[in-house]
Design a protein that fits this description.
The protein has helices at residues 2-14, 119-124; strands spanning 31-38, 47-54, 60-67, 74-76, 82-87, 95-102, 107-115, 136-141, 145-150, 155-160, 172-175, 187-192, 198-203, 208-214, 227-235, 242-247, 253-258, 263-270, 273-281, 290-295, 301-306, 312-318, 325-332, 337-342, 348-353, 358-364, 371-379, 383-388. It is 5% helix and 49% strand. β5 and β6 (95-102) form a beta hairpin. It has a domain at 27-67 and 340-390.
Length: 390
Amino acid sequence: MYKHYLLLMALIVGTGVVHAQKPQKSSSNSELTMLVGTYTEGSTSKGVYVYRFNQETGKAAMVSSVQAGNPSFVVATDNNKFAYSVSEYNDGRQSAIAYRLDKSRGKLSLINSQTTVDEKIGAKKGKDAQSDGADPCFIMTNGKQVVTANYTGGDISVFPIAKDGSLCRQSQHFCFSGNEQGTVSHLHCVRLTPDGKYLVADDLGNDCIYRFEVNNRADYLNKQPFLSNELIIYKGEKGRGPRHIVFSKNGKYAYLINELGDVVTTFSYTAGRLKEIQALVAYDGGGHGSADIHISPNGKFLYTSHRLKDDGVSIFKINQTTGMLAKVGYQRTGIHPRNFNITPNGKYLLVACRDSNEIEVFSINKKNGLLRDTSQRIKVSKPVCIQFLK
């Protein structure tokens, strides 16, 4: 009987499948809480998944999940009390969702949701509920406000956060139109600048980056506007398609991955202004599906993911004096690496391979930034976002 038990356990481990466990308290500094957003349409995914990931061994265990529709991007507040996700639809169901987060037990519970549709402003623009606020694909929070970038809607939705973590109704809604004949706005990323004074928004359709001034006093009680004074601070080459942007640890540089041009653009950043200093081909295979971008915790390396052809991750070394990039390698991955993330200790890079239905775990060589496939796989249907709690 005991031998049969050991054989059964060996077979289970050998499959690489991670099974759900009862919510349990985190007990190690090496053990991270990891949130995974997914697509539920056309998959067996339930919604958002919570894992324990050991950043020393590279092994994961699923703890729990919470049901949600197409939560393709998820983020947690800095105090780890609440989490928020998009619900990426374009049929009137598009919304932002609030969750209560119990980090110690690895559990999310639904609080409420709010539509990203703004009927009043949508009517003014001649939009309907199927296009206004449609396909929210990115979400950020400063703990007081939540902002979504709505891809098909070509707009931004702003939600104040109540004391209990719930989302209030939209307080602001910014619509963007084509800047040139034949262009259509597609918002893909919203991110605060390192100084906390501004929010930048990448418009893939108009090949530009908008900047808003941020009112950090704004909250659900005083009802002051969070964003104001919209300004285009970067106009890129037509057809490149700005997608995601990240800032260097010292706040002096910004790096933009362009989806359609497969180019990474380097900027110097000063007082809310971006100045382009380099444009480097990130992938020359012609896939035109560049997706995500991250900087290693030590600030020495930058990574970009690429889909649709020869799927993989490009690896760059960052010049610590000039901020400019030099490409050092390319790591093949599973199918459709939409998003990825790096563990806080810089030891592992995890890739959400949407169409392989798994998260791949790569170890990082801290000397040269190159990746090595550990053969560790986290099985989950249509994974598209990975976030580690702070």
